[in-house]
């Protein structure tokens, strides 16, 4: 199996995972979409768990590079946060759930190794959001009434929840309404706390 076939398998599996779920696709589905036999898939990915683990690790690597690119382009943390939120809109426009959301939706059915990777991915996003919010607190002199980690959790929850609702409804009506409102509320509330 060539490296391009392996990449094609990972791409098709990612689309399947983000649109149908990990449990809903099989090697037969992948083989039919790519035009190879199942034995060829087993050559590189002996089990579906191996495929899932490599897919998640690859996705996390790409996502981390994207976050680095966002940081390099935007010195202002608020712009970084807004660009982060647009990653979720892009997924919704493609009819896909964010990978973390898709995996979390069937967490109990996932192999333990994939559950751990899903948790690690959520934690890495929360860490990035926390660090970026800390940068915003420093740069914009925000005074928060709750720990930064709590706001990071709220921001990610808003994006993941909105993505899930948009995906279920088959439309993207207000994908960033909650996220943007929360950011604006943070800035306004911080101004009042500083003034008070």
TrEMBL record:
* Gene3D superfamilies found in the cross-reference section: Tetracycline Repressor, domain 2
Keywords associated with the record: DNA-binding, Transcription, Transcription regulation
Q: Which organism is it from?
A: Pseudomonas fluorescens
Q: Where is the HTH tetR-type domain?
A: 3-63
One Gene Ontology term of the molecular function aspect: DNA binding
The protein's superkingdom reads Bacteria
Q: Which PROSITE patterns match?
A: HTH_TETR_2 (PS50977)
The keyword DNA-binding is assigned to this record? yes
Q: Which residues bind DNA?
A: 26-45
- Name of this chain's protein: HTH tetR-type domain-containing protein
Lineage, top ranks: Bacteria, Pseudomonadati, Pseudomonadota, Gammaproteobacteria, Pseudomonadales
Q: Which InterPro entries match?
A: Homeodomain-like_sf, HTH_TetR, Tet_transcr_reg_TetR-rel_C_sf
Transmembrane stretches, by residue range?
A: none
